């Protein structure tokens, strides 16, 4: 997906594919105080489509804990909802 988005000038997902923990820190940086050592304490909620096996693997390999499933208001697809602890 990152390559497809980049082809159209959308670079939002490039970091997610290359360094997922850094991607999560970037998401949280705008909402939480960054510690002097670069950590962003707290948790981040992240979702992905139920059929997106690649995202599921990356999220779970980086400590994502499945908290539930829901339906996307935008796509109508079933999504998996995760919490990831940032430390």
Explain what you see.
By secondary structure, the chain is an alpha+beta fold. The protein has one domain (2-86): Aminopeptidase (3-Layer(aba) Sandwich). Helix content is 34%, strand content 28%. The chain contains four helices and three strands. The chain has a three-stranded antiparallel beta sheet. The mean pLDDT is 75.
Indicate the mean pLDDT: 75
Fraction in helix: 25-40%
* Radius of gyration based on Cα positions: 14 Å
First-to-last CA distance: 27 Å
Q: What is the CATH architecture term?
A: 3-Layer(aba) Sandwich
Placed side by side, the strands forming the largest sheet appear as 1-3-2
CATH class: Alpha Beta
Give the total of beta strands. Answer: 3
Main sheet overview: 3 strands, antiparallel
Structural class by secondary-structure content:
alpha+beta
Number of spatially distinct domains = 1
The fraction of residues in strands falls at 25-35%
């Amino acid at each position: 997906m990152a390559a497809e988005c980049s082809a159209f000038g959308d670079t939002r997902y490039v970091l997610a594919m290359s360094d997922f923990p850094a991607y999560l820190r970037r998401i949280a940086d705008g909402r939480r105080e960054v510690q002097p050592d670069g950590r962003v304490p707290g948790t981040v909620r992240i979702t992905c489509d139920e059929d997106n096996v690649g995202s599921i693997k990356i999220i779970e390999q980086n400590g994502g804990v499945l908290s539930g499933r829901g339906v996307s208001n935008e796509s109508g697809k079933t999504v998996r909802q995760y919490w990831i602890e940032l430390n």
